[in-house]
Amino acid sequence: MRGDEFLDKMGLVDPAYVEAADRMPVRKKRGWGKWAAAAACLCLILAAVPLFGQRPDTSGDDASGDGPPYFASGDRRYVISAYQSVTDELPDGFVKAGTADLIGGFENCPYYVNPDVPEWIYVYHEARTDGTVDETGTLTDTSPHDAYVLYVDERLRGRDLVCYEGAYYTSLWNATSYGDEPDVTEEAFDKIDRLYGPRIEGDVPEGFVLAGTAEFSGYETVPVGKLASNKEAAKVYYNPDDPDVIFVETHWFTAPEREGGGEVRHEGFDVYMRYDCPFSGRD
Predict the structure, then answer these.
(1) Neighbour-count burial of 251, counting CB atoms closer than 10 A to its CB (0-12 exposed, 13-18 middle, 19+ buried)
(2) What pairs with residue 112 in β-bridges?
(3) Tell me: the pLDDT tens digits for 76-107?
(4) How many CB atoms neighbour CB 143 within 10 A?
(5) CA 92/CA 114 separation, integer angstroms
(6) In degrees rounded to 5, what are phi and psi of residue 224?
(7) 190 — pLDDT class (breaks 50, 70, 90)
(8) What is the pTM of this model?
(9) For residues 107-131, b (16+ Cβ closer than 10 Å) or e, as one string?
């Protein structure tokens, strides 16, 4: 989305979401201040798109109003997909499991589960997009209509994963080494962060060799197979002597250094670390 389009979309933001984002606690990693700020901005954009057909109801005891509605079931909490997947047809394999009130949002919503994909549920409620995007990556606005909306386990939401030879790796952009339920140990995270950081530019480090091109499994899926990724199809490099880290080929752009210059493209790698994926066993 270009800058002017972003500003146009921000004009559609429900003020309740802006206030909620302002109240949300900031989760910090050492030395990641500027990256945390960028990630917070992205999360605000995703939350702000007017997908929902009603404002959150914050009158209930469990409704905090600190973000979009979510669905709690057992030990899992499901939050709307970061990619805001919406469909008029219920995907194969999903069956109705009951109705529920979404905390902070819709009431008496039918929801659908698939025992083979326990990290996903579909909830039927009003939406204002069909889930498609235009050539700029902007969600398509539609008139309010009922649809099946994808909710994902909050631990998987927006997480970049690679499966290589049965082992799982998570991007350092996503890895959490702090709080009550860290994804990875602080020691392991700090070791890789000190060596490489979340991304490197230029050639792959010495000792790493091409493992192959990861097959794209779909956003917010748990990739399976010899080599697969839920972010995109990309080349993956590994080091036989260091199974705790892999590199995934990527590119990115930065703003021009001077007025009138074009965006600068950078080539490099995102850094992924070994991850005890809680979804690989379909817990």
Answers:
(1) exposed
(2) 96, 122
(3) 899 999 888 899 999 999 999 999 898 877 89
(4) 6
(5) 9
(6) -135, 160
(7) very high
(8) 0.72
(9) eebbbbbbeebbbbbbbbbebbbeb
Rounded Cα distance between 235 and 250, Å, is: 8
Q: Which residues of 181-209 are buried (b: 16+ CB within 10 A; e: fewer)?
A: eebbeeebbeebbeebebbbeeebbeebe
Tokens representing 179 are 């709080």
Report the pLDDT value the prediction gives residue 163, as an integer from 0 to 100: 96
For the chain, the structural domain boundaries read 3-153, 161-274
Question: Contact 229/212 with Cβ under 8 angstroms?
Answer: no
Q: Which amino acid is present at 19?
A: E
CA-nearest of 135, 122, 125, 131 to 95 is: 122
Length reported for the chain: 283
Going 43 to 120 to 132 to 56, the CA torsion angle's sign is negative
Q: Are 90 and 112 in contact (CB under 8 A)?
A: yes
